[in-house]
Amino acid sequence: MKISEIAVVPIREKIDGHCAMVSFLLDKTFFMGSIALYRRPDGSFRLVFPTKKIGNTHLNIYHPITKQATQKIEAAVFPYAEKLLNKN
């Protein structure tokens, strides 16, 4: 799994920690977008993948299903986000 062309778009940080939107290419064949980046109170980050609300239910659009995939995405995105967001 190769993650490339990472884009982090800062937004006005909200009280819940939402600070940016993230997108990237997965294996140069899939565009993964509309991923929310949140800053935790300790300064670390977490990613929230897109969902669709139907009634009272939130359905996952897509998300990593293994811990290894999650860790690989975070390892690619978080250093880039840290560098960009600490500049602003």
Characteristics:
6 strands, 4-stranded antiparallel β-sheet, single chain, 24% helix, 88 residues, alpha+beta, Arylsulfatase, C-terminal domain, globular, 44% strand
Query: How does the helix and strand content classify structurally?
Result: alpha+beta
Q: Tell me the strand order in the biggest sheet.
A: 1-2-3-4
Number of domain units: 1
* Helix and strand sequence: EEEEEEH
Briefly, what CATH class? Alpha Beta
Describe the structure in your own words.
The strands form two sheets. The protein has a four-stranded antiparallel β-sheet, covered by helices on one side. A two-stranded antiparallel ribbon has the order 5-6. The chain is an alpha+beta fold and 88 residues long. Helices cover 24% and strands 44% of the residues. The mean pLDDT is 94.
How would you summarize the topology of this molecule?
Layout: E1 3-10, E2 18-26, E3 30-39, E4 45-48, E5 51-54, E6 57-60, H1 67-87
Antiparallel strand pairs: 1-2, 2-3, 3-4, 5-6
Can I get a quick summary?
The strands form 2 sheets. Strands 1-2-3-4 form a 4-stranded antiparallel beta sheet, with helices on one face. Strands 5-6 form a two-stranded antiparallel sheet. The protein has a single domain (3-87), classed as Arylsulfatase, C-terminal domain, CATH 3.30.1120.40. It is built from 1 helix and 6 strands.
